[in-house]
């Protein structure tokens, strides 16, 4: 259901925004991925450390660990916003290939996206706690809520007569903030660690350990980021926002094709870390190997048919396919 709603909403957004505005929105999304890169890498570190403490059955250490992670992300989010705001606006004005009439709109979309990203960076420890406790049901429900609200937003676009790019960006960012706040609310209700936030102490050694663990993943994650999002910037410099619109469509198909595998990895990683915390290393390695094999099968089962019938899929999905560059 989520896949269907996402694909239909993207088609309607493309139709209503037009190729140029859709390309602008996709380009700003790429820029935000670079800005949130370090924070996203640290979020994997949060889940890993939380799951290990859960595996040790030592909840007394989990509360200060949660607060330490929150303080780390809060300070990092402020730093990233201070650095990203002038750099992002400079890139939009002087580096990216945009229509002159859409530069101000692009800057507004960037600011709105930066606001929602700021909230996203702060609440990362909450989402990591859901994942570490393997509360996949709550995560899935919140993701579905976001998908449904985004779908409804796409349905409202035809009825708005003003600048549809600003309208869509504002409410898209608002939807994200609402879902993030729901994570905080539900997390506070479900988990003692969230309620013990005020009374817990910040552990500087744990913050240092999380940063050190992040360094091991940094280069691999950076390579993946450049391979996926760096291409969007190169496409913009060569082909403008029309190229970004094409990349945005391609990324939607790629994301939905790999969605099942990503969900499998997200749901099993905490269990692997929990077994490590419980010193059951052989079981953790065996589970990791099985997940890798199953994930590869999922990719092949979904990706091969998509590759073979991509023209038919795009015709069926978009109906009115944008012309080639």
Describe the structure.
By secondary structure, this protein is mainly alpha-helical. 86% of the residues lie in helices and 0% in strands. The chain is built from 13 helices and no strands. The protein is globular, with a radius of gyration of 21 Å. It starts with a helix and ends in a 7-residue tail after the last helix.
Order of helices and strands: HHHHHHHHHHHHH
Overall radius of gyration: 21 Å
Strand segment count: 0
**Biggest pleated sheet:** none
Low-confidence stretches: none
Based on secondary structure, the structural category is: mainly alpha
The average pLDDT score comes to 82
What general outline do the C-alpha atoms trace?
globular
Strand content: under 5%
Helical segment tally?
13
- Estimate percent helicity: over 70%
Query: What's the end-to-end separation, in Å?
Result: 32 Å
SSE inventory with pairings:
Layout (H helix, E strand, L loop, with lengths): L1 H34 L1 H19 L3 H37 L7 H20 L1 H9 L3 H21 L7 H27 L1 H4 L8 H36 L1 H17 L1 H19 L3 H28 L1 H9 L7
The gist of it:
By secondary structure, this protein is mainly α.
What attributes characterize this protein structure?
86% helix, mainly alpha, globular
